[in-house]
Specification:
Elements: E1 2-10, E2 25-33, E3 36-41, H1 43-49, E4 55-65, E5 67-73, H2 87-100, H3 105-121, E6 124-130, H4 135-148, E7 151-155, E8 157-158, H5 171-185, E9 191-197, H6 205-215, E10 220-225, H7 229-238, H8 245-250, E11 259-263, H9 269-278, E12 281-284, H10 286-291, H11 299-305, E13 308-311, H12 323-336, H13 346-353, H14 355-360, E14 378-381, H15 388-394, H16 399-409, E15 415-420, E16 423-424
Parallel strand pairs: 1-4, 5-6, 6-7, 7-9, 8-9, 9-10, 10-11, 11-12, 12-13
Antiparallel strand pairs: 1-2, 2-3, 4-14, 14-15, 15-16
Bound molecules: zinc ion (ZN).
């Protein structure tokens, strides 16, 4: 057992329903036993209840729950920074050529390690990972994630048209390869499987039918939707009988409480209503939407329809793996929307980077906040002395103000420690570097 003492901050409430300030909680100390939070409260009270327990002091900065990334592409970690193109051109010139290289298993192994170590270094301990088009590359990702004990949900990316031939599967091969991966990795430790058609633009009705069969195995589902106007027009042309983009998935019964759709920058009201009705979630990827010029995410309309929204870094079209940067960009975009935007507070930003993702991924009974009984996944954000963030934290009025300073100024260099189910990353028990 260990007692962690410091400024421990989380959002057990939901700032999107009711007073945002009421969603925030701060405590002095957590007692962690076998990787699980056993008590929280005042340090003196925890020490009195368990005298003799070692105390790990985390002085300065804030300790927050491990970040939860609801949409991030593992094969693109070496392809960040392709600026200057909209979605379909960027895919063709930057993303897909790199994704093709993961056909080489040794290459995929190196990429998987770089990707997962990058997540941990950025404070992300849970993620819905958009996988590779190659089953051996998925084996490498799952094995490396198991070694690091990360909460990773991922799956083989499926397409049967409109991509380079090396990235395509027949629906029959998609079924066989996915079923094998599900058998080997789903619900093994902290790993889960997600059926992952790239987007309906590159997946025929036959492929989406295969996805529906796989979903019957109790796994998760993720794909892209409504990211870019040219993409949406292409999908409409490919599915002349569908009512809207979401219907291309919905008519195969792929819109469920276990479904997470990335982007949704340009949804119709009927789509938002359907997402809410089926309990599906949306992963908002603000730096990616900005870099590709995809548009300004209508967060207010999602919230008003009752659609769950989480944050994704979407790397490589995004600006790195650090979720506080995504939260800040989400804030910027809502500001730019003027009256149509939803004014986000620092409490919203912490919620979006942690508990919102845990809820979207169905992990909120295990991670996303520091409630007693949850697994201790945590990030200690503590800037170096003399940095502009350190100066600002010294002048913060209260915890909410400190969060505002952190979300505005922090970078991965301010991640002073990461715990994965009670084990500090970079320690002898956990191989991820820190
Ligand atoms: Zn994506």
């Amino acid at each position: 057992m260990t007692i962690y003492a410091g400024a421990i901050v989380d959002t057990p409430g939901d700032p999107f329903s009711g007073d945002p300030g009421g969603a925030l909680r701060q405590d002095e100390a957590l007692l962690v036993r076998d990787g699980v939070i056993a008590a929280r409260g005042a340090l003196a009270a925890l020490r009195a209840a368990d005298p003799g327990e070692p105390v790990t002091r985390l002085d300065g900065g804030l300790l927050v729950p491990g970040f939860v990334d609801a949409h991030v592409h593992y094969p693109q970690i070496r392809a960040i920074g392709g600026l200057g193109l909209p979605l379909l051109g960027w895919l063709e010139q930057y993303a897909l050529p790199e994704e093709g290289r993961l056909a080489d298993r040794a290459y995929a192994r190196a990429v998987a390690a770089e990707f997962l170590d990058g997540l941990v270094a950025a404070g992300t301990t849970s993620a819905l990972v958009f996988g590779s088009h190659f089953a051996p590359a998925m084996e490498e990702l799952f094995a490396a994630a198991a070694q690091r004990d990360l909460n990773i949900t991922s799956g083989l990316v499926l397409s049967d048209r409109k991509l380079p031939p090396g990235l395509l599967h027949s629906p029959e091969a998609a079924l066989a390869d996915s079923a094998d991966l599900i058998l080997r990795w789903h619900d093994r430790g902290r790993l889960r499987y997600a059926v992952t058609p790239r987007f309906s633009l590159s997946a025929s009705d036959e492929m989406l039918d295969a996805c529906a069969q796989l979903l019957g195995k109790g796994v998760w589902f993720t794909s892209h939707i409504n990211e870019n106007l040219a993409e949406i027009a292409t999908v409409a042309g490919l599915f002349p009988g569908s009512r809207h983009y979401l219907d291309t998935y919905g008519r195969h019964e792929l819109v469920t409480p276990r479904s997470v759709f990335a982007h949704n920058v340009h949804p119709g009201d009927a789509e938002l209503a359907l997402l809410a009705e089926h309990g599906a979630s949306v992963a908002h990827c603000p730096t990616s939407n900005s870099a590709l010029g995809s548009g300004l995410f209508p967060l207010r309309r999602h919230v008003e329809h009752g659609v769950r929204v989480a944050l994704g870094s979407d790397v490589g079209a995004g600006a790195g793996l650090f979720l506080p940067k995504e939260a800040l960009q989400a804030y910027f975009m809502q500001q730019l929307l003027g009256p149509a935007g939803l004014r986000l507070t620092p409490v919203h930003l912490l919620y979006l980077a942690t508990r919102a993702g845990a809820r979207a991924l169905g992990l909120d009974d295990r991670v996303g906040d520091f409630a007693v009984g949850k697994e201790f996944d945590a990030v200690w954000l503590r800037p170096g002395d003399g940095s502009t963030l350190a100066v600002n934290l010294r002048h913060a009025r209260d915890t909410t103000d400190a969060l505002a300073r952190i979300f505005t100024l922090a970078t991965p260099a301010d991640v002073a420690g990461v715990w994965v189910r009670g084990v500090r990353a970079g320690s002898a028990a956990c191989p991820a570097p820190r």
